[in-house]
Amino acid sequence: MSAASYLDFAITDWQAIRHLPWGLISRFGESVLLLPCALGICGWLRYRAADACVARWLLPFSAAASLVLASKVAYMGWGIGSAKLNFTGISGHSMMAASVLPVLAFVGTPARWPKLSVAAAVAAMSLAILVGVSRLALHAHSVSEVAVGLVLGFGVSVPFMRRGMPRSPAPLVGAALAIAVLMAMPVTGIGGASQRLVEIIATYLSGRDRPYQRGEWTFAETPASCPRPACRREETPSGVEAKGGRHGLGSNPQREQPAKSLSMATGLFRQRIHSRRTRNPFPGMPSCGAPRDQSRQGFASRAPTP
């Protein structure tokens, strides 16, 4: 068992974390919720005339978001990934949580309390890590995908949090209100809106009728042994769960091979039974598949002579 598969199995089978509300924790990494917060941070910094901080925040964040989108489109559209690492695209939830939440907590604390700012940033980083663990507990991503997303997100947020930048509780309060309103909206399907949009982009660019599913690879690799099928909960374009993979609908060729082998074995077994029934081991006796008149001729030929 590889290291990534062992971590998948250990995290998803740990009894102590099964009862946590992973669905609610995972929503703190939704792009629909955190992208407005990121734009709000840029607007507030621009309002405080901190143009250098805006560029230092917006450019790395845009690059990280583009890299996440490119990795997902590459796999969904062309099947480019790693079967050994079980990697099908960077976790967007992990990247968004690790890049936005610490910055939001750091900027939202008063500058006259530097220790409180550091504590708030550390707490937000812990929440981001918890969001990454929730993606594993929900079988939405593998360990490699979550790890790359967290490293990429922290690479955006940690260098940005410096002394001397404008800070105020206003952006934190505004972001909290925006998240509360979006999470309380009685609209279904908000959580998977970004995922469905990526699927539409990938299928349009690649010309496929459906996106690649987890387990389908363009380049033949030896997949890592996994005791449990990871990443089973993702919404398809029609809103139905794809229990065999992450992306879209369609059958899996690897799952069709056992069915084909079983049908071939059944056909060979029927042919062998039929050949045994029609074969006559005794030349003088009538066979099971012989016509009735031939059977009578066989008995007549064996009739004893007076």
Automatic annotation (TrEMBL):
Domain annotation Phosphatidic acid phosphatase type 2/haloperoxidase: ranges: 34-161
Keywords for this protein: Membrane, Transmembrane, Transmembrane helix
UniProt cross-references to CDD domains, sorted A to Z: PAP2_like
Region described as Disordered: 223-306
InterPro entries (UniProt xref): PAP2/HPO (IPR000326), PAP2/HPO_sf (IPR036938)
Pfam families per the UniProt record, alphabetical: PAP2
Chain segments annotated as transmembrane: 24-45, 57-78, 90-109, 116-137, 143-160, 172-193
Protein name listed in UniProt: Phosphatidic acid phosphatase type 2/haloperoxidase domain-containing protein
UniProt source species: Cupriavidus yeoncheonensis
